[in-house]
Amino acid sequence: MGFFDKLKGKLGGLFVEGERVNDGFYDELEESLILSDTGAVLAGEIVEGLRSRCKKEGIKLRQDARAVLKTQLTELLESAGSREMNLATRPSVVLMIGVNGAGKTTSAGKLSARLSGEGKRVLLCAADTFRAAAADQLEIWAQRAGVGIVRQQEGADPASVLFDAVNAARARGIDVVLCDTAGRLQNKQNLMNELNKISRVLDRELPGASRETLLALDATTGQNGLLQVREFAAAAGLTGIILTKLDGTAKGGVILAVARETGVPVKWVGVGEQIGDFAPFDPAAFIEAIV
Predict the structure, then answer these.
(1) What CA–CA distance (Å, rounded) separates 23 from 264?
(2) How does the average pLDDT of the chain come out, rounded?
(3) Nearest-angstrom CA–CA distance, 76 and 8
(4) How does pLDDT run across 85-94, given as a tens digit for each residue?
(5) Which helix (H) or strand (E) holds 26?
(6) Which of 64, 149, 233, 273 sits CB 3.0–4.6 Å from 142 for a disulfide?
C-alpha cells in the first residue's frame, strides 16, 4: 500500500472510462473540488485551466483528462517553496507551532523519531508550558523515539526552556533541537510576543544556526486552515507545513489553496496515530491518490 492510499477515490469517480468530457463533467469536477476544501475561487481556476488544456490538446475522453488534471495539480503543489529540511548546522533548530489540537506535539514526536532514524542526534524541547500535561505527552514521545528531552515545570517561561535545551545540545553534540511551542492563535499578540522572545534567544545563543519553523495543520479544518497559515506566517515566518490527520476522513484540498496563496510548502504528512504514520510529502503521490 502507498502512503496516501487512504485518500483514494476523492475525485476519481468522475473519470469514468469511455465517457466524454462535457460541461456536466466540468461542473461536477468544480463541485467536487469545492467539497474537498479547495475553495470556490481556486476550484474555478483549476477547472478553467483543465478546460483550456483539454481544448488545446484535443482531449475528448474523461480518462485522458485525468492525466492532464494530475499534471496541473502536481505543478500547483510543486510551485510552493522547497520541501527539503534545512538542518545544515550542529545544532540546527526546528520550531513546531500550531493551534491546540492540531497534532503539534504528536508531530514533534514523530519527526524526532524520523530524524533519529536517519542517524541524527535529536533533543526534544518542551516549550509548551501552558497546556496541562503537554510536557508529559512529549516525554512519552521522547521515550518512544529514543531521544532526549529538556523540560521544566508547568507555567515556566518557554524561552527559558529553550535556553536550557540549547545549552544541553551544545554540551551533548546534538544535531537537531526540536522545540514544541504553545498553540495560542486566539491571542495573536501573546503568540507573537512569545515567538519573538524564542527567536531572540536563538539569535543570541545560536547565531547563524539552521532553523525550520513548521506549522502543524489539521487537514480536517478545511478552509480555516488557510487562515491559520496566513496568521502564523505573519507571526513566525513559516518555512513549511506538517499536514496532520490526513486519514480517510480528511479532504486535504486546502493544501492546494495554501500552495497557491501563500507559497508555504507542505514538508511532512501524518496519516495516523502510530510513530511510523509520518513521511515526507510527495505531491505527485498525493495527487495520484486523490484524482
Answers:
(1) 33
(2) 87
(3) 20
(4) 999 999 999 9
(5) helix 23-35
(6) 149
